[in-house]
Amino acid sequence: MGQMIFVNLPTADLARADKFYEALGFTKNPTFSDENATSWIIDENIFVMVLRQEFFSSFLVNGDQPALGNGVRETLNAISAETREGVDDFVARAEAGGGSIYRPADEPFPGMYQAAVQDPDGHVWEIAWMSPEAMENPAG
């Protein structure tokens, strides 16, 4: 088995966060889900762990506090889309699940189409598609 990645995110409302991640099409993993946290499978070895704010805090030391809402950003979670349309679909599903557009879809470089959404707690998810030609010749 390869290494696994768990993105741990605090939430103020677990049910609301679950609605968002379900709308994105992620699969709930009941093995790692309970009244304090929900585990969502993005891919075989990539998971999002959404933890109630109080439970998330139990993993922090040195007086650190969970960050929710807008303001300072420490991370941008980024995933790929298989098609350009997949980017637009992801954004639509995020909005339907209670999220919002953080950065509208655009094409910052030839062959790269991207957007970013915010979950209900303010965590940002970037979604991007790159054409096979752009991936073969990233310098242009």
C-alpha termini separation:
37 Å
Task: Give the structural class.
Answer: alpha/beta
Approximate shape: globular
Adjacency order of strands in the biggest sheet: 1-4-3-2
DSSP summary, beta strand count: 8
Radius of gyration: 16 Å
Characterize the quaternary organization of these chains: single chain
CATH A-level architecture: Roll
User: According to CATH, what is the topology?
Assistant: 2,3-Dihydroxybiphenyl 1,2-Dioxygenase, domain 1
Specify the biggest β-sheet: 4 strands, mixed
Q: What is the total number of structural domains?
A: 1
Count of helix runs: 4
What percent of residues are in strands?
Answer: 35-45%
H and E string: EHEEEHEHEEEH
- Mean of the pLDDT scores? 92
Protein name: VOC domain-containing protein
Organism: Glutamicibacter mysorens
InterPro entries: Glyas_Bleomycin-R_OHBP_Dase (IPR029068), Glyoxy/Ble-like_N (IPR053863), VOC_core (IPR037523)
Domain VOC: 3-130
In short:
By secondary structure, the chain is an alpha/beta fold. 24% of the residues lie in helices and 37% in strands.
Explain what this protein looks like in three dimensions.
By secondary structure, the chain is an alpha/beta fold. The protein has 4 helices and 8 strands. It has helices at 14-23, 53-57, 84-96, 132-136; strands at 5-11, 27-29, 37-43, 46-52, 77-80, 100-109, 112-118, 124-130. The longest helix has 13 residues, at 84-96. The mean pLDDT is 92.
